[in-house]
Design brief:
7 helices; Heme Oxygenase, Chain A; binds fe (ii) ion
């Protein structure tokens, strides 16, 4: 992944679209959390989490202007890297995990929604804790004005909070978490391969 990220950060056009892609994915994460929220019984920890994911989306979007003003005004495909799999990733993870908890543990209704929130978010936090530091290293390497240190700090907290909530939710949490990690790994590989392919085509360079 480091090679891919270094290539992206060294090109302003790719870097702007990378930030926009991460922003879109963070925003999808924030929306996903909001979507799973119980309108009455929602707790502070979930409000905090969705607010922070929304902040990440906004923060990443704002960083784009440090590279080029108005480079990526929307999340349209032409302003993203590997748009197909970038849009697909969270949805596909959600579907896979919903099916798994429904079929294996017989959950339905709000319990299913809540389990999916916990597991999808958990797997993404594990990934975020790996990916953002790689990105930050690359930013430092190229002396970029962009920084994601504040996001790294919050994602680390999120992961701890997700583990606490999972432990509280079920004594089978580790079995569920293992499934979530494996499902995410497959989708991340898909995204990474698509990204690699995207970077090697002209599409990535003619902008
Ligand atoms: Fe985030
Ligand atoms: Fe997070």
């Amino acid at each position: 992944m480091k090679q891919i990220v270094d290539k992206i950060v060294s090109s302003p056009s790719l870097h702007a679209r990378w930030l926009n892609t991460l922003s879109m994915m963070e925003n999808a994460g924030a929306k996903k959390i909001k979507n799973c929220e119980d309108p009455v019984f929602v707790r502070e920890i979930i409000l905090k989490h969705s607010a922070e994911e929304a902040r990440h989306a906004y923060y990443l979007k704002k960083q784009i202007s440090k590279i080029e003003e108005n480079a990526c005004p929307t999340y349209e495909n032409r302003y993203l890297l590997a748009p197909g799999t970038s849009y697909h990733y969270l949805n596909a993870l959600d579907i896979s995990i919903c099916k798994y908890v429904k079929n294996t543990f017989g959950y339905s209704g709000y319990k299913l929604k809540y389990a999916a929130y916990l597991l999808v978010t958990y797997a993404i936090e594990v990934r975020a804790d790996e990916l953002y530091p790689v990105y930050q290293d690359s930013l430092s390497l190229f002396s970029s004005n962009v920084t994601v240190k504040s996001i790294i700090a919050e994602e680390k907290n999120h992961l701890e909070e997700m583990i606490l909530q999972l432990k509280e939710f079920s004594e089978d949490w580790e079995i569920m978490a293992r499934y979530a990690i494996e499902a995410e790994r497959i989708l991340f590989e898909e995204w990474k391969n698509d990204l690699e392919q995207y970077l090697s085509t002209d599409q990535a360079n003619d902008n």
